[in-house]
Amino acid sequence: MSELIRWGILSTAKIGINAVIPALQQSERGQVVAIASRDESRAAEIAAELNIPKAYGSYDALLADEEIDAVYIPVPNHLHMEWTIRAAEAGKHVLCEKPAALNEEQVTQMIDACKAANVVFAEAFMYRYHPKHQRVKEIIESGEIGEVRAIHANFTYNNCDDKENVRFKNDMGGGSLYDVGVYPISAARMFLEKEPEAVTVHALFSPEHDDVDMMASGLVEFPNKVALTFDCGMWACARAEFEILGTEGRIELPKVFGWENSDIPPQIIIHTDHVTREERVSVSNSFVLQAEAFADAVLDGKPLPFGPEDAVHNIRVIEACLASARKRERVTLPAMVPMV
């Protein structure tokens, strides 16, 4: 392998075009060499627009390219397992969009396939790579806000009129929990460094949108009597906020999951009885940081900050949330057995 990761992109999804591909191109150890679409003319159009050397009219053709080391997979959710396994069997490392798949069984199969092929697998939760989150952990560990008592979070936007959007297709893994609910749940797990014990969720399942959950509100119970309360939605005004409440203060993250530029508000606001202060750790592109961490894993064998087993932990919570919302009851999660 060269000193750079040579990337192939499976699909012309907007998240790839607008964020991930530019980040891979900006990264120090990556270059995008090919993009594929089921529509070859569309692949060629995007390749020309983004200065990508090769365009393919099928995903299989891209995977057959021996000059590609890794692939980024932003296809609809229900296709994540199929194309991750195919990519692994083709010897390609895999960065797969969140959620990794639709359920724990699928994610486990994906990880097993990548292990068998000796390739790196990562779920593309870009926000976690920003250094502000490590700073939040430091503040918590310092005791400044006392003992953590609760976490409150939200992630919503309104795209309800786009009826043909894949996010509104039930059999394609649509719904707000899969699309944006995964963020507050993954963040709470990241900050608490524990796995939930039970969930209770209420959701708006919309007949206008193929009965996917267009809005969900939930309670996620963690050990030590700490809980996450959250709401997520695709039929509400846009917001993405996070609060960690302690016995002596609280931490506020105004734009916890969003993209950043020099005009962003303070990244971290700490409130205590004595003072309110604001911190800005850095204005960093989380997509670039994700690309560099992936490159370190592939090229240097450095462990990923969030290993493949994290994708299993996260999707089992999402599954429980969906089950709770459908059944209108509290769902208990069994203890997680470590992956071999």
From TrEMBL:
Keyword match Cell division: no
- Residues in domain GFO/IDH/MocA-like oxidoreductase? 133-252
Q: Which residues form a coiled coil?
A: none
Q: Which residues form the signal peptide?
A: none
- InterPro entries membership: Gfo/Idh/MocA-like_OxRdtase_N (IPR000683), Gfo/Idh/MocA_domain (IPR050984), GFO_IDH_MocA-like_dom (IPR055170), NAD(P)-bd_dom_sf (IPR036291)
The alphabetized UniProt keywords are: Oxidoreductase
Q: Per the record's keyword annotation, is Oxidoreductase included, yes or no?
A: yes
Which positions, given as ranges, span the membrane?
A: none
Q: Which residues form the Gfo/Idh/MocA-like oxidoreductase N-terminal domain?
A: 6-123
Q: Which PANTHER family match?
A: OXIDOREDUCTASES, TRANS-1,2-DIHYDROBENZENE-1,2-DIOL DEHYDROGENASE
Family per record: Belongs to the Gfo/Idh/MocA family.
Q: What is this protein called?
A: Gfo/Idh/MocA family oxidoreductase
Q: State the organism of origin.
A: Paenibacillus polygoni
